[in-house]
Hints:
By secondary structure, the protein is of the alpha/beta class.
Amino acid sequence: MKRDKTIVxxxxxRVLLVCCLLWSAVANLPLVTCHLSFxxxxxxxxxxxxxxxxxxxxxxxxxxPDTIFVARDGTGQFRNVAEAIEVCRAFMDYHKVIFVKRGxxxxxxxxxxxxTNIEICGEDRDETIITWDDHANILLPPLSGEDxxxxxxxxxxxxxxxxRVDGSSITIKNITIENNAAKLGQAVALHTEGDRLTFIxxxxxxxxxxIYTGNAGTRLYFxxxxxxxxxxxxxxxxxxWFEHCDIYCKQDSYITAAxxxxxxxxxxxFNDCTITAAPGVTKLYLGRPWxxxxxxxxxxxxxxxxxxxxxxxxxxxxxxxxxxYMEYNxxxxxxxxxxxxxxxxxxxxKEARQITLDRVFSxxxxxxxxxxx
Length: 373
């Protein structure tokens, strides 16, 4: 009898998985790319088998590779992404997917340092949105000992994130991360601290300081992403590779502000990306070094006509001596190099062949991003 029940459970599991895949095909959902996982049901319960269980999480155990479903309308196991993150086990040795249905999730999220091997996958990139609206000049409540008759200090840039990723080996796919604060100060959408982070087919929306890659020696991979902003909207000390991304500039200003440490061989690498500008924008710089030794390379990219002939800005004049700013084989009306600043470089074909994912990401260890179609 026990054997018969086991067989029935396995058959039902496969039938339900087939139904889920058929449902995905009809609704055009990215189930295959999100690696959804369904395990056999726990004893005495069918929870974890149905692709979208109705009702709350209850006493369900989440210490397994099964996919967690988040739906703002209440048809998932959780209504908020942060709640799903909270139930994941620390330092997991298996792959865990959090599948987020279409909806707008107004949340300020931290993926903590003790979480690894998590994939957060949206149902639809443009319609699965995590949004918040902090900016650097919001005044915080006064601390003890400060003037309690007034307000406290400004929030500062580094607390304004919508999503902060402290954990390592994290993948985020098919999701929009937005900081929709008014233009009253720096406002970060994505703040990264962890290592081996992958972002595929995501949108990052904001103005000044949209993406902050906040930790030197960490490795980030962005593929097929859309990134918009106004000033220094990709900035920080991490090593980050941007592959086939769309970079949209919303005002006359600077795209990148790398602060790569001197002992770090690579900073920002943009390969096969497209730079475009909003109507009315006429003066763009590829970047300026936030700190000495900032590293930024644009190669095989399409550069719009709004890129200034000089290409780069020093921020502070002495950084002309240390900035590592390079280009190779770019195209478009903004790609002409004859008037580039003399302290930037054009790579030779031999040098360009040395710029590979494996080499760029070989810092403390080797890492190949989990690239998918």
